[in-house]
């Protein structure tokens, strides 16, 4: 245990020294010259290391749906050191454990040899699940958040009940109805039949809308946009921007073509359908008594909400902005549940 802590501190000290001498290494992820949207998209998941939030870690999703983490964060999360060999082989070492990755097993914008060792910290991404398993860490995914819990062997030895508590939470979540009734009205305040998907939440205001003959691509877009919003904590006085929270709707982010309104016409557009997410969230905010800072109606009628209660959004254009005026933090929940889109504001 002491040896592990000493090695971890040494590695972090070395990494901090490298950061100090290299301004390029301090670039934010948005300005990272080694990062490319061509192969990775930002994940909505958060990271928790040994029971503590690891907000410094950013997770990404590759084209195979794997959760990826850059080498810089791998070093900090697993207290490991790196070794590079010929033909792009990368090895991770921690105590007496070793993991090897070929170029086919990690993501890099170009041949790894084109980067300096320092640059590789930001240019190379490894699958989180594989690295965790290779170092005997437990990795638990929780949809509520969503969040990954990364638990080291040393932590579990001292806190044996932590993993059990997470598993008990999973069992409680599974008790919620998996398929809500199909004959509910097309929209309305969240009722008990739908609120069961969040059994432990204290609702301030919530709303649902029905997916009416929604094609697969459209539903996919709604699911993705909900995941970006779900679990966000909105502080008192803070403004939630739908566009800023959900991000740009791109193919790399997983969005698909679906019908959108363009003036008085209906056309195919990337990310079509997410206005049902914004509309459901808008109505939930009205139910919760929050302040609407910005909201725009569609140019044509929609069928999934009452007349005059819709909220259209477009990247670089119309946005939905909601301000928390309740005098306390609130949690924002958003998901697709069976054939319904649900949005809620609950006690944080």
Entry summary:
This protein has ten helices and 22 strands. It is α+β, with helices and mostly antiparallel strands and 348 residues long. The strands form six sheets. The protein has a five-stranded antiparallel sheet. Strands 13-14-22-21-15 form a five-stranded antiparallel sheet. It has a four-stranded mixed sheet with strand order 3-2-12-11.
What topology, given as strand order, has the largest sheet? 1-4-5-10-9
Major sheet attributes: 5 strands, antiparallel
List segments where confidence is low: pLDDT < 50 over at least 5 consecutive residues.
1-38
Share in helix: 25-40%
What is the number of helical segments per DSSP (H or I, 4+ residues)?
10
The counted number of beta strands is 22
What's the Cα radius of gyration?
22 Å
Q: What is the mean predicted local confidence, pLDDT?
A: 84
How much beta, percentage-wise? 25-35%
Structural class comes to: alpha+beta
Shape: globular
N-to-C terminal Cα separation, in Å? 35 Å
